[in-house]
Design goal:
The chain is an alpha+beta fold. The chain is 50% helix and 18% strand.
């Protein structure tokens, strides 16, 4: 479970999405905290008074002599508050001498008495009235060479009521709604953006998964890849080019060496056959035969490992199996082993390399005959989607089963001096055709199953 958790967390898409979501949530949290802190601070309320004074100072109405007499209809939606709550809010206009020329309310005023009180100077001020703390602001107004002073005031409890119980819930509700909308819209946009941005990486991964020794010429696509990842993809393609070159050189060397060794071995064998029959001559001929077989197997392995050596044509699979069984009948008779062919399906036509398929079947049958005891049988069964070859020999241990297809590995019960490349060649041919070759331990013996992919089946 820990591995699964780490695997999900290592997702680039998930990490980027989580980082953006965390940043968004942090921004919203800071916005809420800042709004709560500002709304709970009386400084903001006093700034609101100063701003209100500045805002309505331009809407004062004057008489013909230039004396303030009221406010325009534009700000009546604000000034009614001073008339409705006279003990909590009020306004007044003073002249340069500090005389009141206009004020709110008709009863007892909340303003301190006397001209010297609350000197008309731009800024904010506080005073006490009937046990209430009042906050106020003054805004000077210049008109026709005269200076007037507009003053607004409101009590602390009135400001707390407006800000804490009205403004704060509205702000919290607004921020919450904004956060939900932002989360949904941003999350959807981020998901779609990341999906489109990282799609080229998925294409690259799929292309990389198809690269094998049979497709080293494949290169990862660069088109559509993010600029930051283009150098990485280019470097990987260059590494593939170097790998392909090295693989081709190795295969060419193997093929060339096998070809060059065939002629000297043939000449040595011819000279040995002309010599008088002695025990030493016979051992030398045996060694030359062993070397010739190894060279031939190496040449077949080099050819089987190169995809361009295959020529795919329609092949009748049951007929090809029957030909391979007939070809090895003499070898089976010499080993006193019976070959049993059972055709459970007929006229199976597949796209295949006829020579390579024959080599695969021949090697499987040779391997089975070499491990089958005298007097036993080797069974060959052809089904619609697979071919099985089974012997009734001693088999092998479970630990040795994965080694069957390794190069130069040989079982302990083989009768000949083979090179240990026959099953390796079979695996290479099967992979080149898109088939699967597997070994299964039986009681007794060993069975090989060639699973045919019949997607390209031509007929039945």
């Amino acid at each position: 479970m820990r591995f699964v958790t780490m695997l999900h967390f290592n997702s680039l898409r998930l990490q980027i999405l989580l980082s953006y979501l965390a940043g968004m949530m942090l921004s919203v949290t800071l916005l809420v905290l800042a709004a709560v802190w500002v709304l709970q601070d009386n400084t903001l309320a006093r700034m609101d008074l100063a701003d209100a004074a500045t805002g309505i100072s331009d809407d004062i109405r004057y008489d013909d002599e230039g004396t303030p007499i009221g406010f325009s209809a534009k700000v009546e939606d604000v000034t009614w508050l001073f008339e409705s709550v006279p003990r909590e809010t009020a306004y007044r206009i003073l002249d340069e001498a500090g005389n009141v020329v206009l004020q709110s309310g008709t009863g007892k005023s909340v303003w301190p008495e006397g001209k010297a009180s609350l000197r008309p100077v731009r800024g904010r001020f506080d005073f006490e009235h009937d046990g209430l703390t009042m906050h106020g602001a003054t805004e000077p107004i210049v008109r026709n060479g005269k200076i007037w002073y507009l003053q607004l005031t409101a009590s602390t409890r009135f400001m707390e009521l407006m800000h804490r119980h009205i403004a704060l819930p509205l702000v919290v509700a607004g921020v919450t709604l904004f956060s939900v909308v932002l989360l949904l819209a941003f999350g959807l946009c981020a998901y779609i953006t990341l999906r489109c941005t990282l799609q080229p990486l998925n294409d690259i991964s799929q292309s990389a998964s198809t690269i094998s020794p049979y497709s080293l010429d494949v290169r990862l696509p660069v088109k559509g890849v993010p600029t930051e990842l283009t150098p990485l993809v280019n470097s990987f393609n260059q590494a593939l080019e170097r790998l392909e070159h090295g693989y081709r050189v190795q295969q060419e060397f193997l093929s060339t060496a096998a070809h060059e060794l065939k002629t000297p071995l043939a000449l040595i064998r011819a000279q040995l056959e002309l010599m008088p029959q002695t025990e030493q001559r016979n051992w030398l001929l045996h060694d030359v035969s062993y070397m010739s077989r190894q060279v031939q197997q190496l040449l077949l392995l080099a050819e089987a490992s190169e995809r361009h050596n295959y020529k795919f044509i329609p092949v009748n699979v049951p007929q090809q199996v029957a030909e391979a069984v007939a070809y090895l009948q003499r070898m089976a008779d010499a080993a006193q082993v019976k070959l049993n062919l059972e055709l459970h399906a007929f006229d199976i036509m597949l796209q295949a390399d006829k020579g390579a398929l024959f080599t695969l079947l021949k090697n499987l049958l040779e391997n089975a005959i070499q491990h089958a005891p005298e007097g036993s049988a080797v069974s060959v069964d052809v089904f619609s989607d697979n071919i099985t070859v089974r012997d009734h020999g001693p088999g092998i241990d479970d630990a040795q089963l994965p080694k069957l297809f390794d190069r130069f590995w040989r079982g302990a019960h083989k009768r000949d001096t083979g090179a240990g490349l026959g099953l390796t060649i079979c695996r290479e041919i099967a992979q080149a055709h898109g088939w699967a070759l597997s070994a299964h331990k039986m009681q007794p013996g060993l069975m090989f199953r060639l699973q045919l992919h019949t997607d390209n089946k031509l007929g039945a």
